[in-house]
Design brief:
This protein is an alpha/beta fold. Helix content is 19%, strand content 28%. The protein is built from 7 helices and 21 strands. The strands form 5 sheets. Strands 10-11-13-12-14-15-18-19 form an 8-stranded mixed β-sheet, with helices on both faces. It is globular and about 70 Å long. The two termini are 38 Å apart.
């Protein structure tokens, strides 16, 4: 071992979650076996970890972006493998899901170097050296503002600077509550973004309230009227349940007329001029189609299958007038995203507006397509809002292809928004 011991360098030590981090160990003996370990303590109280086994080069250096991991939670040359391959530590309760709730703080990653090629049980070993890095969804000086205006509930994120900026109405999926991490990251890339709460809203009596379409139109108008927003440059981004809502309103609303739409892991199966309540009703009519895997994890993707032939039961994709980006995980076990994408493409080809459609379809990717380097979650606990019970839902996906899909689809999402919301002169950038 070198006289002063090994040195672990993590660069940058603080950055946005979609930025790459270089991890390098110096001053090791030549051809020395080490295990690199990464650990995050989540806001849910869970520990997530990853590991890669390396052998130093002739100069006593291990560089994660250059060198092969010889085993662990990932293998081969994977510069960001220590992040995307994270999983709950072995003693965790099953069904954990990695989440960032408070976007005003970073998540902190502790990187450590251990002697030898270890398997597990890191708490019984002392690291040779460690370093901590911060990863943020929120860039410096991005404003976070809670919104209750006009009866809507949400959080508005505003980039620094005089503006006005393009904007995104962000509709996350069926877990309910307010999901802010994607909106925070969009604002860090120069978009005013409204994370709208629209699922899981309860009445005074504690009953689940399905918001109607005017709720989404009110949120869209709120964005358009904001002094920091360019009213003609507002997009909608939907995930899961947010997809049929986004597409449906885009086809017929006289108010919600987005410049472009991004759809992640969803479907167009919703009655013409229908609402969120109609999507729930369609799902409940087909509860006999619920399947379970060998570990009794629930599979919901068949609830909307087969894709209806009756055009009145689907969004009229032929009436779409703005660019659409569809992001599909071909192993989505929660929504029939692949079948829906194929049908949408066919509908638009027949109508002559398929030039507006871009489909990114990823073999081996599941339902939960998150920003880059987020840990892949194949299944997790899920709270049924009305029944107030928990089930374990199978989301699908295999770790390596799913992680590749997250990275590429996010880069292409930013490029798509850049193309349709910003003037051609702007270079892609963010606020850090």
């Amino acid at each position: 071992m070198a006289e002063h011991g090994p040195v672990l360098c993590v660069h940058p030590s603080s950055c946005l979650v979609d930025e790459k981090t270089e991890v390098e160990v110096k001053h090791l003996p030549a051809d020395y076996r080490v295990t690199l370990h990464a650990l995050i303590h989540s806001e849910d109280g869970d520990d997530w970890e990853s590991l890669g086994r390396y052998t130093s080069d002739s100069s006593g250096t291990v560089k994660v972006s250059r060198d092969k991991s010889l085993g662990g939670t990932f293998e081969g040359v994977e510069g960001m493998g220590l992040l995307w391959s994270m999983r709950p530590v072995p003693e965790s309760k099953p069904g954990r899901r990695f989440r960032k709730i408070n976007v005003q703080t970073p998540f902190k990653v502790t990187f450590s170097v251990y002697e030898g090629h270890l398997a597990r049980v890191f708490k019984y070993h002392t690291p040779l050296t460690s370093a901590t890095a911060e990863r943020w969804y929120l860039a410096p000086e991005v404003q976070r503002v809670e919104v209750t205006e006009g009866g809507i509930k949400g959080t508005l994120f505003i980039p620094p600077g005089p503006g006005p900026f393009p904007a995104v109405l962000d509709l996350c999926g069926g877990q309910g509550g307010r999901v802010e991490h994607r909106s925070a990251l969009l604002a860090s890339h120069g978009y005013v973004s409204l994370a709208l709460e629209y699922i899981g809203i309860l009445t005074a009596e504690g009953k689940l309230h399905h918001v109607d379409n005017t709720y989404f139109e009110t949120a869209f108008k709120f964005l358009q009227k904001h002094p920091k927003v360019r009213p003609d440059r507002v997009a909608v981004m939907g995930m899961s349940f947010g997809v049929p809502v986004s597409l449906g309103l885009t086809t017929y609303s006289q108010i919600l007329e987005p410049r472009c739409v991004v759809c992640v892991s969803g479907s167009h199966i919703m009655p013409h001029k229908g609402s969120l309540a109609d999507v729930y009703a369609a799902l409940q009519q087909n509860v006999d189609k619920i399947r379970y895997d060998e570990k009794m994890r629930i599979i919901w993707r068949d609830l909307l299958l087969p894709v209806p032939d009756d055009p009145s039961k689907k969004v009229k994709m032929g009436e779409i007038k703005c660019p659409i980006l569809l992001i599909v995980g071909e192993d989505d076990q929660n929504w029939p995203a692949s079948e829906s994408a194929a049908d949408m493409k066919e509908m638009m080809e027949k109508a002559g507006n398929s030039r507006l459609l871009t489909v990114l379809s990823y073999p081996g990717a599941g339902h939960l397509i998150e920003p880059p380097y987020s840990p892949h979650v194949r299944f997790s606990d899920f709270k049924l809002l009305e029944a107030k019970t928990k089930v374990v839902v199978l989301w699908g996906g295999e770790t390596v292809p799913h992680s590749r899909a997250q990275e590429e689809s996010w880069q292409k999402t930013l490029a798509f928004l850049e193309e349709h919301l910003y003037d051609n002169s702007r270079k892609a950038t963010h606020c850090c």
